[in-house]
């Protein structure tokens, strides 16, 4: 990679015309992607990407340039471009780079860049074959996607921080389509984590394929979901899509400071039920949204955002933290060296409570049990959302009843947090790629089994 003397020279050049702070983000990334459709390996992609982003902060303004020329002259040219975008008077820039040690480390047992493409293809084919074998007549289409990345990062800045980090992530997803007559249903299952190919030893590809296909086939026989207002139980296995989308983005400091969050000006106030605690913790082992340092070189940490219903904190990068006069808390993330960092989630979850998940269902009476969330839409300014239910069941007299299809959940994220009545002691994770400002970053979301007093359930059946 790059030596410290070169990095110091580049940072000094970036501050030649002024500025409060400058940093360099250097990235070297190896990726592999495999796609399977119609029982055939359709694509195998592997490649190497490298480059650097150089940033200067001056007041509330950011100047940013990037280059894939990692030579000394290439980096200095990018630094000069950034420096000219800063209006001011340059001064002496004197600092020494000192290495910052990581507070956490992640174990990788099988580096994916040392696993043969043939072994990766075998895993993809195993998932495909297992999914098709669930029901050879009804399963009409199976799509399997595998991906891994080994990313080396260096971050150096004018405060003297020098960080080296390696991120290794692996994921596998299966989507199955089942048909019967005119009915078409889809099942989806995905696993992934901050770790190597050992992920597929803990999550057998065949079992991932079976889970996706079985869900699609079961939905064919499901009855139309009723429509109306009713209690909703979100099972832990449903994952944290709700908390991520409906309130997580509203806790990112840039949206708060722009007045685009319902949580603006509410720190210290009660914004959720007392049984609700919301956390973002990028230090969790093996989770897809974990990292030792964020993309500004700030060590990751557990951040309690809402504690017993009280709004405690936001997710900050360096720029938003400076505006609020607080320390950055490890949430400055970027998709690649081509992007400037912005506040982003890592592993966001509602903390487990003390209630028994089965007791939560028994005490619900009649309502809807959601075991798998689908896609949806969210207005991050208001928190209003509409989510599809990928797997849902009626709750009848405290018992899990028939499966239903076509259900949607409509509500408001901050309001949902206020009307959560019970929080289970379990915790289930899902993975995804979170999009914001044209950037995608890997995240995990989680929640225990929770009961929401009342949501508007949309469906094609008749409500009570």
UniProtKB/TrEMBL annotation:
Gene Ontology molecular function terms on file? metallopeptidase activity
> Could you tell me what this protein is called?
TldD protein
Composition bias of kind Basic and acidic residues appears in: 325-338
Whose protein is this, by species?
Desulfallas thermosapovorans DSM 6562
Extent of the signal sequence? none
Highest taxon listed in the record's lineage: Bacteria
Looking at the record, the residues that make up the Metalloprotease TldD/E central domain are: 111-220
Which GO biological process categories is it annotated with?
proteolysis
Q: Which residue range or ranges hold the Metalloprotease TldD/E C-terminal domain?
A: 228-459
């Amino acid at each position: 990679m790059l030596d410290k003397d070169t990095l110091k020279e580049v940072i000094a050049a970036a501050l030649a015309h002024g500025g409060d702070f400058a940093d360099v983000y250097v990235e070297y990334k190896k990726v592999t992607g495999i796609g399977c459709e119609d029982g055939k390996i359709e694509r195998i992609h592997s490649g190497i990407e490298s480059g650097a982003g150089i940033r200067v902060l001056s007041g509330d303004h950011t100047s940013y340039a990037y280059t894939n020329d990692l030579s000394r002259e290439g980096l200095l040219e990018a630094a000069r471009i950034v420096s000219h975008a800063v209006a001011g008077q340059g001064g002496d820039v004197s600092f020494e780079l000192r290495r910052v040690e990581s507070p956490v480390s992640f174990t990788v047992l099988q580096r994916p860049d040392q696993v043969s493409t043939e072994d990766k293809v075998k895993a993809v084919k195993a998932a495909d074959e297992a999914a098709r074998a669930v029901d050879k007549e009804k399963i009409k289409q199976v799509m399997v996607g595998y991906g891994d990345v080994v990313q080396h990062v260096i971050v150096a800045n004018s405060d003297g921080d020098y960080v080296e980090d390696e991120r290794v992530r692996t994921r596998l997803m299966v989507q199955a389509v089942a048909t019967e007559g005119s009915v078409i249903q889809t099942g989806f299952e995905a696993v992934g984590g901050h770790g190597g190919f050992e992920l597929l030893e803990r999550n057998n590809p065949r079992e991932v394929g079976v889970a996706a296909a079985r869900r699609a086939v079961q939905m064919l026989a499901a009855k139309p979901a009723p429509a109306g207002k009713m209690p909703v139980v979100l099972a832990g296995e449903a994952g944290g899509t709700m908390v991520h989308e409906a309130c997580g983005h509203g806790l990112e400091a840039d949206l708060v400071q722009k007045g685009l969050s319902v949580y603006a000006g509410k720190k210290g106030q009660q914004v959720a039920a007392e049984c609700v605690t919301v956390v973002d913790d990028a230090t969790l082992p093996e989770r897809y949204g974990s990292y030792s340092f964020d993309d500004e070189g700030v060590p990751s940490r557990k951040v309690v955002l809402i504690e017993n219903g009280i709004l405690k904190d936001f997710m900050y990068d360096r720029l938003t933290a400076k505006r609020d006069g607080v320390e950055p808390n490890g949430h400055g993330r970027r998709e690649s060296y081509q992007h400037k960092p912005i506040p982003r989630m890592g592993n966001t979850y509602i903390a487990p409570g003390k209630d028994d998940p089965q007791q939560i269902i028994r005490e619900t009476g009649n309502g809807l049990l959601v075991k798998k969330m689908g896609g949806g839409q969210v207005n991050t300014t208001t928190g209003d959302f509409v989510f599809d239910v990928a797997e849902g069941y009626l709750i009848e007299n405290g018992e899990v009843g028939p499966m239903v299809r076509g259900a949607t959940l409509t509500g408001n994220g901050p309001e949902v947090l206020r009307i959560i009545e019970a929080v289970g002691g379990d915790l289930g994770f899902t993975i995804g790629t979170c999009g914001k400002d044209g950037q995608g970053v890997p995240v995990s979301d989680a929640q225990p089994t929770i009961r929401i007093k009342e949501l508007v359930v949309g469906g094609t059946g008749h409500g009570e």
